[in-house]
Amino acid sequence: MGVIVGLEGGGTKTGCAVLDAQGALLAYGQGGPANLNFVSEAQQRESFETAIESALKGISEPVLALGYTVAGTFANWEWVLKRLGNPQAFAVEETRMAFVSTGADVAHGLAIVAGTGSVISAFVSDRLARTVGGWGALIGDEGSAYDLARHGLQLAVRSWDGRESPSQLVNAVQAFFGISDLRELIPLLYQRGMPRHELARFATHVLETAESGDALAQQLVVERATVLARDALACARGVFEPQEPLWVALTGGMFRQPSLFQKTFEEVFSREFPRAHYHTPLMEPAVAVARIAWRRYCADSA
Description:
Strand order of the largest sheet: 3-2-1-4-5
Shape: globular
Low-confidence stretches: none
CATH superfamily of the largest domain: ATPase, nucleotide binding domain
CATH architecture of the largest domain: 2-Layer Sandwich
Number of helices: 11
Oligomer: single chain
Largest sheet: 5 strands, mixed
CATH topology of the largest domain: Nucleotidyltransferase, domain 5
């Protein structure tokens, strides 16, 4: 007997799931961020080790296979494999992981990942057909948590100095950063600096401000959700017919709970694909990675 390990390194956190030989979840562990575009290799390794150590605590069975994925870039998987006893390894695309996390056994449809960053892929009969986005925070990541947080900060400071109408976004910034004068953001962001995954957490406060009825926040949420939906349409066109039933996986922190953001995305996308069916995750990303690795391991062993 043995176990299957799934390791998923995200822009905000790392997850590690352990399945038994029958595919049942045994344990789950968590570590810090792992995207090398924004953290050091040492930080990535620490995040991986923390998640692996937590998940495998008390498990003595050998690791039969490892499924792995990491957001945005690459990772040095050699030490991970060595750490686990050099099991069979399966690379998993981030968007395939996202699709499976919504309960689909076969990836066929559209997978939208809108977490700290964003990326969209179209799958046809389990084959990756097209990917758009995934360009990182400087030139992409439209509709991501970081994107919404950054635009929310911009609107808040514009409201603060009178360039926009009064908005509760100002109060949200004050509460989130623990400041009273918004000009305190200048040394906080430019001198001391704030990691991208930490700044992305402000997106939750932007969504909450919009849900409370703040007009400026609502306009922003609708705008960024519309941009993401248009990117999804660009990915879907030419791959799927507008009238065919379409599984759309909505994953990442921006879809963690129903909101104006999700409502807007679905409304914009459904205008062109009216038979789209929207699905949100039923499991942690690392569990989906482990399930994919388990299926591939079983197929190879048959």
